[in-house]
Amino acid sequence: MYNLFRSLGFCLIILFAIDLGTAAPTPEPQTYRAQSGTKAWNGWESVEKLFVFGASYAGTGFNWLPPNPAPSPSNPLGNSVRGGTSSNGPNFVTYLTTTFNASFIETYNFAFAGAKVSTTATSSTPYAKNPGGQNDMVAQVTNGFLPSYTTKAGHEPYANWTADSSLFISFFGINDILATYAKGDRSFTDPIFAAYKQNLEDLYTAGARNFLILNTPPMELMPVFSNGLGASDWQIPQVANNQSLVRQAVQDFNAEIPDLISSFTSAHSDATMFVYDVHALFLNMLSGTSASNALTSQHQLKPLQNLQTACPFYTQYKPGTRQPVDYLGEDDFDDSRCGGSVGTYFWLNGIHVTWPVHKVMAGAIVDELKAGATGGYEG
Q1: pTM of the model
Q2: Cis peptide before 67 (omega within 30 of 0)
Q3: pLDDT digits (tens, 9 = 90+) for 260-296
Q4: Partner residues linked to 32 by β-bridges
Q5: C-alpha 57: how far from its chain's center?
Q6: 230, 339, 352, 340: which is closest to 282 by C-alpha?
Q7: Residue 116: phi, psi to the nearest 5?
Q8: How far apart are CA 332 and CA 344, in angstroms?
Q9: DSSP code, position 197
Q10: What does the buried/exposed string (b/e) look like for 249-262 if buried means 16 or more CB atoms within 10 Å of the residue's CB?
Q11: How buried is 143 (Cβ within 10 angstroms: 0-12 exposed, 13-18 middle, 19+ buried)?
């Protein structure tokens, strides 16, 4: 896949991957520098604003419309609500904003549970519709970001931001695949990625120049597919070969990302695009090897011992199943019925991961953003 990127004559492209055969948590990224075009990327330490688009893995429950509190020095995530993450604790967006930040960062998060790239490109999901219009990336960009944070709104943007101090993050694919994998039909990828590219174009036209795309994790290893945990809750089809079907769907989805980047960066030599390989990270962490243990120990986390399933007593993605905890704090609660605290589990429920996994992911992303800002391999 990387050979494709070597052929690009434009833009700084950084592909993040993790070598499963070594103990190093993250290898040095490959860097390709443009011969022309003025870049707006000045390194992670220059980022002051995050604009996030995605689904439950990324969401923090933020409502961008006034009079809801906006991000501020005392509350950099804005009016994000308790229970607003799928980890029942901090997620990678929280950690990027408050733990691994190199400067003060304000985060404007449009991600919402169940969201896909485009609801018109795939069948509807079982998740409840959100009246705020965040059901897909199209809505998050056109109904959320553009009318609220650009001059197109006909009013002053709700936040001042500049291209060189802002990073635009998108994390999609899980719900697109959940809605289509059982059909074994790969034709859905074309309209999905046409919509993905158009959303990136709309953000670019609005002034965005720095982008981070996260690819899709190995969904076949989610407990909902490996042992059916939570399948009825999420109305996910259980077919005889569901793991092989979803594995192929993930492979096909992730294989489209290089073409997306090639097309976009060829047209915009002043854009900087990062791709983080969540798929490789999760495979590494789920391997149970010394390399995976090194990823948790570097953040003073417990070794992950429960890698294949989730404990139902820790499954709190649906609010109200236990007493509220501080959803923006690291609560390593321990239920004796689970055989280990939540911090020893990889999966929180059938689909989502625990906050320690999010912490490792955020730390690895920042490591690569920093490495990409300082060097790499010239192409």
Answers
A1: 0.85
A2: yes
A3: 998 999 999 999 999 999 999 999 999 988 777 888 8
A4: 13
A5: 6
A6: 352
A7: -120, 180
A8: 9
A9: H
A10: bbeebbebbbebbb
A11: middle
